[in-house]
Amino acid sequence: MTPNKSDVTPVKLAALFRAAFRTRWTRRHDHAPPTGDTGTRPLPDGEQAGPSDHASRTSDPAAAESTLWRLRTTVKDEPGSLAALCTALAAHRVDILSLQTHPLADGTVDEFLLRAPGTLEGAEIARAVAGAGGADTWIERADTHDLVDAPTRVLGLATRTALDAAELPLALRQLLGRCTIRSLPAVPVGGGRGPEGVPVEGALEDTVMRLRAPEGGVITVERPYLPFTPTEFARARALVELDARLGPRVPRGQDVLTLPEGHDITVRRADTGDLRAAVEMHERCSPRTLSARYHGPVGDADRYLNHLLSPRYGRTLAVQTASGRIVGLGHLLWDGDETEVALLVEDAWQRRGIGGELLERLVAMAAEAGCASVYAVTQSSNTGMVAAMRGLGLPLDYQIEEGTLVVTARLDAPVEETDGAVGLTRAETP
Length: 430
Description:
- By secondary structure, the chain is of the alpha+beta class.
- It folds into three domains: 12-44 and 149-246, no CATH class; 61-142, ACT domain (Alpha-Beta Plaits, 2-Layer Sandwich), CATH 3.30.70; 254-426, Gcn5-related N-acetyltransferase (GNAT) (Aminopeptidase).
- It has ten helices and 18 strands.
- It has helices at residues 81-91, 122-131, 150-163, 168-176, 230-246, 275-284, 287-294, 301-308, 354-368, 383-390; strands at residues 5-6, 66-75, 95-104, 107-117, 135-141, 180-184, 203-205, 208-212, 218-222, 254-258, 264-270, 314-321, 326-335, 338-345, 373-379, 396-401, 404-410, 425-426.
- β3 (95-104) and β4 form a beta hairpin.
- It is elongated, with a radius of gyration of 24 Å.
C-alpha cells in the first residue's frame, strides 16, 4: 500500500507531605498524598517498557496469524528514503497501516503502524529497516487501539480533557505512550521551594519535556527509552494550553441514594471548591477516625486537603446530605504507576454502606482509566476498610508491617458477584 503521511500539531509532587502518612514500605516510598500524576496503565506481567523483540497476540480471531507493531526510525530527509523503507518492509510481507512523519532539523522521524506475519520477530523487522537506511530504530508491540489515526485520537483526548480537568494527565499518557508524568506545584505542600520555572512555551530536552502547569508549577513528562520529537512536544503543549484556557472544571452529574433509615444522600464529584466543607467535616470527625484515615497526626487539614481535592492529582467523590453538608470523601489518587484509594466517612454516618458505595465507584473509575490495580493503606485494626475491599469481589494482596496494612485489589481479574453497598437504594440520576 501507499502510506498516507500525516502530521497533527494540536503531572509526582516533589515535596512529599509527610504529616499525613509517615510509614515507609518496601514496595513504595510512602503513602502520602499522591506524589505523581501519570494515569499510566501498568504493563502486563512479563512485559517491559521500550523496544520488544517478541510478537504479541491480537484479540481479533481474524488476525490471529498476524502481529501489530509500532515502529519508529530516523531517515534522511531526501527523495527516495521513504520508498526504500517501504520496499524493505514489503519484502517481509509487512503491511503499513499508517504513517506519521516528525520533521527534525537534520532528518525525519517516521512512525509506522505495521501488520506483520505472526512468525516475524521485531528484531528481524528492525534489521530490515536498518538495511534500508533507517537509524535509531525503535519497535514495540501494538494493539487494536493503535489503529485509530492520530487526528482522531488527538481530538478524542482533547474532548475528554475539556469535559474533566482530571483527564489531563491521562490524556497526556495516552497521547505520548509509556511515560512518567510528574506535576510539581508552584508552592509545595508543607512549604519549601517550588520547582524551577519553565518558559511560557515550555522546554524540550531529548527524553524530557517540561510544560507550564495551568495552575502554576511545572508538568514534567519523561520517556527515557525514546526521545520526544518536536511534533509530540507541540501536541502535548496544545493539550495543556487547552486545559489552561478552560480553567477548573469537574463533571456535575450526581446520584441520589437512600439509606436504610430513609435519609437521602447525594454522591458527586468534588474539587477544591469544596475545601471549606471538607475541612468542616474533618473538624467533626473523631481523632480515632482521622487516625485510621491518615495513620498519624493530621496537622493542618486545609493545606493537604487542597491537594487531595485537586483534579490534577486524581479524582474525589463527596457524599452530601440533603442540607448540603459533606459527610464522606473518597479519593482516587494517581501514585506513579500505581493508583491509591482512600476513604473518610464522618463518625455519625459510618456503618451505613457509604464507604462501600464510595469504594465501588472509585474502583470503577480506576478501571475506566485503564488501571490494572488499586491499593488502600490502612491500619490492621481498621476492619471496616478491609471489609469494604473484600466486598469488591476482586483478588486481593495483603502486606503488613508494624500495624500498617496495604491491601491491593487487581482490576484485570473477573469480578465475583456481590450485593454491593448494603442498604443503599439508588434513585434516578438528575
